[in-house]
Amino acid sequence: MRDRERSFDKPPDVYRSVFIGDSFVESRFTPKSLPALVQQKLDPEEKRLEAINFGVSATGPREYFYRLRDVAMRLRPDALLVFVYSGNDFLLGGEDFPGPLRLVDASPGGSLLASVMPRTNWLLANRIRLPSLFGAGTQAPPDEAEQLFAIVSGPREQRQQRLVAYVRKWLPPKSSDEQVAEILGRGNGAYLDIAEPAGTGDQEYLLDWMLRILMNWETGAILGPRNEAEIREMAGRGYIPATLSWLTAMNREAQAQGVPILFFAIPVGSVDPDYARFWESWPLTDTWNRFCAELHRQLVDAAVRERLPLIDLGPDLAGIPGTYRKLDGHWTQRGEDLVADRVARELARLMDPAASRRIRMPE
């Protein structure tokens, strides 16, 4: 995890907050993680606040629950902040809490093997990524990052041809060279242009998993909703109750220990007009953004009905250009800074409701 070493014993006179989430909390693409940025805004010398980073990429609410119950609570936190990303954190209908234990799981609390062989579970889940291999098809090459960077940093006239060859070799479905080239060439070649080495803090990168999503959607290998009616119908297939059940379970755990908890709903990048404009060239893939936006809206509404302490980050980001990275959909430095302002305000209220009224954070 992206953080400095911490002690299990809480330092005296320090307010210990724990941030739980996925790659948006881990923050691989920005100079500081989200918790570190909140720490800088509220207490840069770390004399009265700890903002601990429990963000782990490619995890979701199921893992968040076990991370909260089995690890975060051992740290005797003063506050828990859980971040739910509308792009991929929704569980399928039928995966409601508590669900069955898995043989091997990224969270030991959810693993049958971990109950008797915790280190073996850790080895299988994290070292060789066993859960991701079950039922998987073609895998990315072990040096996929190097191969893709070599393509975008190589001769401009060869880039598309080389990327087509990569897609044809490594990615399902097996489409023709012409079909792959047509998809990659849309928007006057914007998909490749945006990943050119720029030497800036918000450098975009070609990523194998995003290429897979693009090709699966645009070739029709994945059939998604095609209009607003189909988006609403698909969104009604149990995603909200299943996801909400795990958030409610986390809320119960926090209440049982007397620890304040806040949930933050992260919208997909389509709230950023630049991001939305970029993906117009790939309309089938963009239906996923619209589908996730509908789930986001429904989750926020459901949290209000259930009186779950959930904060919608959509209004903090909506309409502001340059807040999301185009290819991987994470926050840029500007987007993370806006979110950190909002989270800092909310955390300040938890730390000292009276003092928070005197803290002037950027609006």
Quick recap of the structure?
With 363 residues, the chain is an alpha/beta fold. The chain is 46% helix and 8% strand.
Explain this structure:
The protein is built from 17 helices and five strands. α3 packs parallel to α12 (about 240-255). By secondary structure, it is an alpha/beta fold. About 45% of the residues lie in helices and about 10% in strands. A five-stranded parallel beta sheet has the order 2-1-3-4-5, sandwiched between helices. It is globular. The chain has two domains: about 15-100 and about 235-355, 3-Layer(aba) Sandwich (Rossmann fold); about 145-170 and about 175-220, no CATH class.
- The shape, in one word, is globular
In which range does the helix fraction lie? 40-55%
Query: Can you tell me the residue ranges where pLDDT is under 50 for at least 5 consecutive residues?
Result: 131-137, 356-363
Distance N terminus to C terminus? 30 Å
How much is the average pLDDT?
91
CATH superfamily of the largest domain: SGNH hydrolase
Total domains: 2
Side by side, the strands of the main sheet go 2-1-3-4-5
- Proportion of residues in extended strands: 5-15%
What is the CATH class name of the largest domain? Alpha Beta
Rg, rounded, reads: 21 Å
**Main pleated sheet:** 5 strands, parallel
**CATH fold category name of the largest domain:** Rossmann fold
Number of strands: 5
Question: H/E series, N to C?
Answer: EHHEHEHHHHHHHHHEHHEHHH
Helical run tally: 17
User: Structural class, judged by helices and strands?
Assistant: alpha/beta
Q: Which CATH-level-2 architecture of the largest domain?
A: 3-Layer(aba) Sandwich
